[in-house]
Write a structure and sequence with these properties.
By secondary structure, the protein is mainly alpha-helical. The protein has a domain of 138 residues: Penicillin binding protein transpeptidase fold. It is 52% helix and 3% strand. It has a three-stranded mixed beta sheet with strand order 1-3-2, with helices on one face. α3 runs parallel beside α10, α6 crosses α7 and α10 packs across α11. The longest helix has 20 residues. The protein is globular and about 60 Å long.
């Protein structure tokens, strides 16, 4: 019994220390980050592979970015961005085939059974499940973590996403995301991407360019407006239809068919 108590205490203490040590985004209330963990990861990766990588990163305030860019990114990446608190439980439930009825309760046997079913589905299909990361979760990854897909990193990313939502406004989260997201090799943020791909500032982006950048987000290194663009163009056209229509609570835009510009071996 004593051993069990000690083990439980150790687990709680470890969780508490991890919680305290995870990044706190308070400085982001008044400071724009000059470098991110994801940029540093790409730099280390280039050194390890013996290649040169030029990082380009230029900040532009959200109020100077056309609204169509924000709309395109939300349509492509996180349709309920304005509604959720960091994690889109509805989208995650859809991805994991959750069959319970809302609202969820820890005291409802049916909900617990459905939750267990989703956990089993997630484990048995772990190589297929996409995760449905929200824009806030992606921002947490970009600022503080790496592309590592481990469970530990995902849990840490989720906690930091909650902190981002707690301390920052939705507009500030979007501003940080649009200025830190990877959009090509060494290209971070919509300003540099607009200059690189279209020869204009992000301030001048129209619907077509905005949809192109949003369509680049899933695989910026293997398909973007300048490199193997077929997958990007396929998603761009779906995003454009969403922008010109009234999608409402539309389903997420699916990945492009695998036979469109398959990435070369080694990528």
């Amino acid at each position: 019994m004593r051993a069990i108590r000690w083990a439980a205490t150790a687990v709680v203490a470890t969780a508490l220390v991890a919680w305290l040590l995870l990044p706190w985004p308070l400085p982001l209330l008044w400071r724009d980050p000059e470098v991110t963990s994801f940029i540093q990861y790409r730099e280390r990766q280039a050194v390890e592979e013996g290649r040169t990588l030029e990082i380009r990163h230029d900040w532009v305030p959200l109020e100077e970015i056309p609204a169509v860019v924000v709309r395109a990114v939300i349509e492509a990446e996180d349709g309920r961005f304005r509604e959720h608190g960091g994690v889109d439980w509805v989208a995650l439930g859809e991805e994991l085939r959750y069959e319970g009825e809302p609202p969820f309760s820890w005291f409802d046997p049916g909900d617990l059974k459905a939750l267990w079913g989703s956990a089993r589905y997630g484990w048995t299909h772990r190589h297929e499940v996409r995760g449905r990361s929200t824009i806030t979760q992606q921002l947490a990854k970009n600022l503080y973590f790496t592309p590592d897909r481990s469970l530990g990193r995902k849990v840490a990313e989720t906690f930091v996403a909650w902190r981002l939502e707690w301390f920052l406004s939705k507009d500030r989260i979007m501003e940080l995301y649009l200025n830190s997201v990877e959009l090509g090799s060494g290209i971070f943020g919509v300003e540099v991407a607009a200059q690189e791909y279209f020869g204009i500032s992000a301030r001048s982006l129209g619907a077509l360019e905005a949809a192109s950048l949003a369509a680049t987000l899933p695989h910026p290194l293997t398909s973007n407006p300048a490199h193997r663009p077929a997958r990007m163009a396929w998603r761009r056209d779906l995003i454009l239809r969403r922008l010109t229509g009234s999608p409402g609570d539309a389903p997420p835009i699916p990945p492009a068919p695998p036979d469109l510009d398959p990435p070369p071996v080694g990528l």
